[in-house]
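Key result, reporting period 2: structure in, sequence out.
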């Protein structure tokens, strides 16, 4: 295990170094919360992908593939559809709002009360969600590598908090990119080795007709085949609509506000689309093959939820000696990238949206200096990082504590009702500025009733039933709001028109942002970091392996090093273009 420990240690060291380096490009609030609006498409696109997955992708979702075959791909098909729409129009629209945070976009569309409601809710629930992800990742790492749970948990949180504090959004995007390369390379290899173990794609597909698996592996299941009527037609439609609702709404703004302009935002979303489509196959073929080849071994492993170990089981079974550390790094990457994105967005909401309103309520109207804003960003990041660790430790010591169940219940009961008005607010221009709360409370009614009905009357509600009733009530409320929209004040109507005009006005990067060293420096710095990780992987060749397994290690290293080389070439081109533009001006 020495090679695994060394690999993981140096990998985490690279992330820390990236955070420290990008500190020099983070001088004001815009830099800290959105990278100054100067991010390149490849950096934004990989960050979008990584923020959409976590270690749960390789545990909980992998267990769904192990038990039910390809049915869960409905979720990822909806994600791909959302990213495609982002490439066509959502990405440019959101970047062209000129916002710093998602809460800024919400304020300009629905007003200050909705901005404060959304920002405060996110700051309250975000750390608890991150703590649960941190606990799950730490438990996985301690189980696989035999490391003590609490030190692993604290170490991960300290690393994420450090680079998020040091480099802000730049560090978040840079580390997301490096982690994406690690995750993609190792999961591509696991998928290839799994297909090789089963005899190739034709043999893999033949198992879908095997009587032992045919019923479970139908794409659409019969009602009652799985708990909660999962994987039925109604489930598939409801889940698809729920995912699309979150993808095609104002709440998607945070993905794109860091891009240079609308064109870069569009290209970033198309990259996320390609990577998500690729990942949907690569990530879930191995747990299905694990069901075909190692079902008895996995189910008899003695774990509480053995299906959740399906991906790790087959990966450990097939990976060459020395690559286990890279598998753990991939799991770290999936969760750390979700944590750092959430942490940065919550800090942005605190400093950009919540604190100015609190100061205004106290009669303090003068703007904060850049130095003070940056200090608050650092303090808020450290505070939230510490809060995440405290919540995670509570979960370790009091595994039966109801706080987490309660928080998840609140998130599920309120989360969908909060997002539905955001969806409608983007697509219905006539929807008045005051309409958010009427639609929200209409959506909340069936959501709360489903919770009461389950707890008091023991009538089980499925996810799809709750989602359909929420959307139905929200749609009726929206129709009523549209009918009453003419009663809105002239100023309110003018504010809504201004929002849509601004959203459709292209960014003039040269005049609105301006060329800077970071435009090309991001290529060179991340190229060096990626190449460092690639060189580190080459050291795994020292582990005892046969020729085929050494070639597998070379593939992973070659994949990462090739990306690093391409970034260097792109950086040279961008630098030459930037210098030419400065000479012309």
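The corresponding designed sequence is given below.
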């Amino acid at each position: 295990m020495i090679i695994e420990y060394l690999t993981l240690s140096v990998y985490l060291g690279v992330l820390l170094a990236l955070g420290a380096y990008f500190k020099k490009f983070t001088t004001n609030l815009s830099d800290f919360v959105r990278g100054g609006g100067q991010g390149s498409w490849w950096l934004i696109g990989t960050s979008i992908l990584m923020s959409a997955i976590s270690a749960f992708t390789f545990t909980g979702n992998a267990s769904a593939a192990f038990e039910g075959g390809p049915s869960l791909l409905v979720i990822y098909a909806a994600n791909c559809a959302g990213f495609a729409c982002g490439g066509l129009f959502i990405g440019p629209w959101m970047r062209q709002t000129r916002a710093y945070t998602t809460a800024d976009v919400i304020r300009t569309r629905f007003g200050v009360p909705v901005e404060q409601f959304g920002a405060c809710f996110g700051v309250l629930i975000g750390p608890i969600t991150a703590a649960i992800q941190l606990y799950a990742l730490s438990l996985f790492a301690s189980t696989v590598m035999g490391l003590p749970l609490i030190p692993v948990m604290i170490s991960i949180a300290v690393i994420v908090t450090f680079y998020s504090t040091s480099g802000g959004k730049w560090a978040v995007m840079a580390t997301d990119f490096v982690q994406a390369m690690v995750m993609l390379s190792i999961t591509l290899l696991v998928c290839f080795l799994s297909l090789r173990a089963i005899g190739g794609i034709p043999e893999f597909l033949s198992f879908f007709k095997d009587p032992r698996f045919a019923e479970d592996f139908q794409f659409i299941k019969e009602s009652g085949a799985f708990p909660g009527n999962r994987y039925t037609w109604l489930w598939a439609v409801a889940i698809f609509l729920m995912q699309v609702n979150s993808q095609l709404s104002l709440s998607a703004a945070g993905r794109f506000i860091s891009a240079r302009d609308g064109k870069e935002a569009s290209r970033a979303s198309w990259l996320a689309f390609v990577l998500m489509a690729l990942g949907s196959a690569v990530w879930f073929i191995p747990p299905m093959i694990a069901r075909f080849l190692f079902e008895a071994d996995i189910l008899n492993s003695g774990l509480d939820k053995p299906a959740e170990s399906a991906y790790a089981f087959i990966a450990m079974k097939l990976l060459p000696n020395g690559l286990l550390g890279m598998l753990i790094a991939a799991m770290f990457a999936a969760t750390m990238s979700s944590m750092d994105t959430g942490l940065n967005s919550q800090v942005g909401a605190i400093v950009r949206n919540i604190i100015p309103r609190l100061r205004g309520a106290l009669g303090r109207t003068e703007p904060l200096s850049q130095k003070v804003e940056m200090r608050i960003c650092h303090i808020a990041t450290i505070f939230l990082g510490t809060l995440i660790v405290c919540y995670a430790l509570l979960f370790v010591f009091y595994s039966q504590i109801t706080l987490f169940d309660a928080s998840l219940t609140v998130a599920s009961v309120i989360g969908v009702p909060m997002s539905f008005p955001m969806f409608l607010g983007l697509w219905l221009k006539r929807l008045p500025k005051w309409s958010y709360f009427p639609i929200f409370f209409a959506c909340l009614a069936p959501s709360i009733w489903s919770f009461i009905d389950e707890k008091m009357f023991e009538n089980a509600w499925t996810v799809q039933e709750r989602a359909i009733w929420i959307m139905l009530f929200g749609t009726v409320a929206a129709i009523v709001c549209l009918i009453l929209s003419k009663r809105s004040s002239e100023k309110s109507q003018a504010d809504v028109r201004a929002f849509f005009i601004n959203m459709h006005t292209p960014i003039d990067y040269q005049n609105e942002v301006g060329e800077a060293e970071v435009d090309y420096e991001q290529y060179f710095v991340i190229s060096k970091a990626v190449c460092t990780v690639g060189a580190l992987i080459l050291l795994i060749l020292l582990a005892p392996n046969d020729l085929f397994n050494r070639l597998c290690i070379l593939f992973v290293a070659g994949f990462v090093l090739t990306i690093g080389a391409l970034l260097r070439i792109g950086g040279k081109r961008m630098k030459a273009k930037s210098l030419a533009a400065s000479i012309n001006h």
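The first helix runs from residue 2 to 21. The chain has one domain: 19-418+490-519. This case is discussed further under Risks and Mitigation.
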